[in-house]
Automatic annotation (TrEMBL):
Its cofactor is dipyrromethane. The modification S-(dipyrrolylmethanemethyl)cysteine is found at C290. The porphobilinogen subunits are added to the dipyrromethane group. Its EC number is 2.5.1.61. This is Porphobilinogen deaminase. NCBIfam families: hemC. Residues 276-343 form the Porphobilinogen deaminase C-terminal domain. Pathway: Porphyrin-containing compound metabolism; protoporphyrin-IX biosynthesis; coproporphyrinogen-III from 5-aminolevulinate: step 2/4. Monomer. Binds 1 dipyrromethane group covalently.
Length: 357
């Protein structure tokens, strides 16, 4: 579980001048490391082809070149768009397609085989156990982690303190996530759920065309795509606990590529690393398949890491939340500990049902 280890947090205390030196040195050494004295360029970056994935990949490359201008001068990047099982299979609930890493498998095969050098992901879609030989080298600053409701009928009156109340009795919610479904059902058992898959724009188009009465999406994705104005209700974490890693972009590389790892870790956001480490440790310990409604959300307040975890049955009749607080350096242990507490407090029969293959 290399990806769950906290890296040294030196980057956070270095000045930006010092960071520039680290980057320049990493690039110089990566050149020296190859037999010809030149690292093979361009660096090949793997990405899904959805507009959101491409936005995230390009923003990441911009961030990297701003930090290390020498890369831009070298025309250093080549984008490889890779289609994944999660992109192709739009007729099934994510939970039914099953398997972990639905949005990353083909990308990671290319990475392991050396056809690409690194890959940019929504951390939420990245399995907690990466394939052998790969590591999570970099986590970028978190965008808003909250979920949002988008209504078909925008004239419905919304009470922010009771965000689900505006939905008509028996309203049909388009949603492919068991986490969102379980949490909504626990407050509104009358709601019905139907599948709404596809990229963000596709889902909004289907909603508008009358496929359902409302849908839920991550605020982060909508904001990145410039569609935040389509949001009707933003759900606070106590109303809808986000998924582990939601709103965070992560980059995977080969474990053996120490130069690239060094470069990427220099632009890492230490806070995003700490919170995602806690959230992903929780998920890993609960065996979070796409089938299990699990939420994990951590934040750092006054230097203290606070992690909230949630586990539920798909129909929302069972749902518990627990919290833990501690030092950010203890993130991984806290995630594991909170998961154990959630499991302990879940009746055995319900837990068995949840993780049934
Ligand atoms: N599974 C799709 C996915 N993966 C990441 C995001 C949003 C961006 C993010 O969470 O970083 C989305 C869309 C959504 O859930 O609305």
């Amino acid at each position: 579980m290399n990806e769950l280890k906290l890296p040294s947090m030196n980057a956070s205390v270095l000045s930006s001048d010092a960071l520039q030196k680290v980057a320049a040195e990493a690039v110089r050494r990566s050149h020296a490391a190859s037999p010809s004295g030149q690292r093979k360029l361009p660096l090949r970056v793997g990405s899904r082809a959805s507009p959101l994935a491409l936005w995230q990949t390009r923003t990441f490359l911009t961030r990297l070149t701003r930090f290390c201008p020498v890369l831009r001068d070298m025309g250093a990047f080549q984008e490889h768009q890779i289609s994944t099982e999660g992109d192709r299979n739009l007729t099934q609930r994510l939970a039914e397609i099953g398997g972990k890493g639905l949005f990353a498998k083909e990308i990671h095969e290319a990475l392991v085989a050396g056809r690409i050098d690194f890959a940019v992901h929504s951390l939420k879609d990245l399995e907690t156990n990466l394939p052998p030989g790969l590591v999570l080298a970099c986590t970028l600053k978190r965008e808003d982690a909250r979920d949002a409701i988008i209504l078909r009928d925008r004239t419905l009156k919304v009470d922010p303190s009771d965000p689900y109340a505006c939905l008509p009795e028996g309203a049909l919610i388009g949603c492919a996530s068991v986490r969102r479904q379980a949490q909504m059902l626990s407050r509104r058992p009358d709601l019905r759920f139907g599948l709404l898959r596809g990229n963000v724009q596709t889902r909004l188009d289907k909603l508008q065309a009358g496929a359902c009465d409302a849908t839920l999406l991550a605020l982060a994705g909508l904001r990145r795509l410039g569609m935040e104005d389509r949001v009707d209700i933003v759900l606070e974490p106590d109303q809808m606990l986000p998924a582990a890693g939601q709103g965070i972009v992560g980059v995977t590389v080969r474990e053996s590529d120490t130069e690239l790892r060094e470069l990427l870790s220099a632009i890492e956001d230490p806070e995003a690393r700490a919170v995602s480490t806690a959230e992903r440790a929780l998920l890993a310990e609960l065996d979070g398949s796409c089938r299990t409604p699990i939420g994990g959300y951590a934040r750092i307040e006054n230097g203290v890491l606070k992690l909230t975890g949630m586990i539920a049955s798909e129909d929302g009749t069972f749902l518990i939340r627990r919290e833990i607080a501690g030092a950010p350096l203890e993130a991984a242990r806290m995630g594991t500990e909170l998961a154990e507490e959630l499991r302990r407090d879940t009746p055995a029969a319900i837990f068995a049902e949840m993780i049934r293959a």
